[in-house]
Amino acid sequence: MNDVRLRPLGRTDLRVSPLCLGGNVFGWTADESTSFKVLDTFVAGGGNFVDTADSYSAWVEGNSGGESETVIGRWLAARGRPEGLVLATKVSGHPEFPGLSAANVHAAVDASRARLGVEVIDLYYAHHDDPGTPLAESARAFSELVDDGRIRYIGLSNHSPGRIREWLDICADQGLHAPVCVQPHYNLMERGVEEDLVPLALERGLSLLPYFGLARGFLTGKYRRGGAEVDSPRAGTARAYLDDPRAELVLGALDAVAARNGVSPASVALSWLSDRPAVASVLASARNTDQLTDLMAVNHLRLDEESTELLSEDSGPGGSGVS
């Protein structure tokens, strides 16, 4: 079933699937062969949006950064680029290319293009804010990449609403290409962005593409008080949500809505998120094709008003974090 209704990304000509496949696991917890299978299955199911970063997975002993981009590049070379595929990557966290100075941005984008094997990157993010570099310098550097034809559009990730607004204002004042989307930490357990970032996105026509949509795995429903241990590199942070007073309410609501729709709690959590104001697509990663099945349901599942209200009321506001 691949008749996925694509959504506009900000005020661009890009159209993306409700699920954006996160590439952070490629070259880390998913080897190349498994990564290829996940990518194949994602595309076969109608997905067209893949997200990675030049820093994935520099935190693994023996890795140097760029492993995920390299895997995706080899997949593209082996399969040929699927029609309509939207490819996103990020700069600022690679050990050899830290920060958002103009020189670094220009060097890092070429390294990413080489690893991915593409001439043009569809969406290029400033991965983390860089207080040591003037925003005007970064904004000009990214805009120059668009003018040079090395990237199509600009995104921001892990920037505060104030810094996002300042970047947008600089672009308006100087006639630069402006960011079209923001990647925030946002899910049923982390709703603080609704107070400031969501209104800003609606005001400025930005799309939101939340990461950690499953709260590091907590919203899959696998983590329960007294439950079995889960083998995952994020198990510790996921189980920490059990200390939140909302945890049992949220899990109960997910269970109820999942049973009503005949899907998994993970599918429900991502569907709720995908229908929030300003959200164009939600990021989630899969270490194997079995995990991908629940994620792919977001491309088709639409919750009724009663289900949405139950989840919204039981989760409440709060939370923050970075990827």
TrEMBL record:
Q: From what superkingdom does this record's organism come?
A: Bacteria
A Pfam family matched in the record: Aldo_ket_red
Domain named NADP-dependent oxidoreductase is located at 18-310
Residues spanning the signal sequence: none
Q: What is this protein identified as?
A: Aldo/keto reductase
Q: Look up and give the organism this protein is from.
A: Streptomonospora nanhaiensis
